[in-house]
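Why do we bother with holo predictions? Because pocket geometry can differ from the apo form. Keep that in mind while you read this record for calcium ion.
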Amino acid sequence: MKIFLDLVQWRITLLMGLCLGVMIAPPAQADDALVADDSLLSSTFSKVRIGSEVKAVMITGGGNGIVIVDVKTGTTLYEIAPSNADLNISEMQYSITGRIAAVDRDRDGLADHVYVADLGGQIFRFDIYNGMTGRHLVKGGLLADFNGDTEASNRRFYSGPDVTNIVTEGKSYFVIAIGSGFQYQPSNTAVQDSFYLLKDKGVYIKDEQGHYTFPSTAIGHDDLFDVTAHQLTAHDVGGLNTAQASLQLQLGWRIDLGGSGEKVLTVPIILNHQIFFTTYLPNSTDACQSLINKHSDCDFSVGHARAYLVDLLTGNAVVDLNQDRQTTSIDRYTSLKQTGMVSKTEIVLNNLAKPMVCLGEQCSVAVIEFDQEGNEIPCSHEFACLTREIFGRFERIQPQSWTTEIERKP
Ligand SMILES: [Ca+2]
Ligand SMILES: [Ca+2]
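The structure, written out:
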């Protein structure tokens, strides 16, 4: 996925996708802008302070571990691995190929938390204690493990998470949005893949040593509230209250993807308290078999894609996409016209009056438009209905306050 936001005073270029890097550069640093290419893979760029020295760093997945590299000298400053590293984490037994999300929680330009996901369906958080030196610079551990013991639950994260800070009703926590999918077997239908929204409260709770805390055991697939059936729209008040209470108590929600072999292969985007993500669905065996029976070719490698837009806190559909006057689970997504995987997702914001969202060859306006009399112009088709909700009434997004990793309630 790519987002471009070009403003006179300010520039963000955010490049995400199967191979990705992230650069967020205010104008003073624009000349140092790092351009993402395939070689950057899971890398993210930030700054850390070691002792009194501020260093520009690349944080990158290397095999089963992570290294923090000084971008000026190429020196490895810190290594996290299963063993023989500055920080040893025994659970790091799987490759890290997806985006690494770095969060600067106090906006001082220094990264404070780093989230990574691996091919074993695990999610880790690492906390950077800026100003410390040696092994004390980073602490961290396992947050969640969404991989089970069966073929159906063998979930993997090839692409990384998006992370944001939630401040609501006096409660503060981070949320991590991520979807699972076996990228190297796109036609696989044996795994039940899911989309997850995980709450991380440990970034607001410190232990007696002053360190951020972790769950005593990793959060699992069944620990999250299953919103697949869209119970949060129940018409009976009792059912609705029960569902809302359960959601409040649990450490997040999950949607078990409903299409045969449906999987997430790209990084989601959290924006405007919604999550925008795409899925890939392979051609089904049945569909192929019927073609083969008719002596036609069937290419298993070409499936199709869906675009989802869901509410950040509930996983619910945000708009009645198919316009049948009820908002249900199928209003979460629209099927894209293109066949195959979405390799390139773009939100193009270089025209502030009319930003566009493009998924593959399909483009549509990303804001709600009004006619000259101030009446809302209705959306014309499902994809248009979905994309225009991404920014809604665009002026609510204040460029100076918006970053991809931190989102606060207006
Ligand atoms: Ca910071
Ligand atoms: Ca509907």
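Residues 2-401 form one domain.
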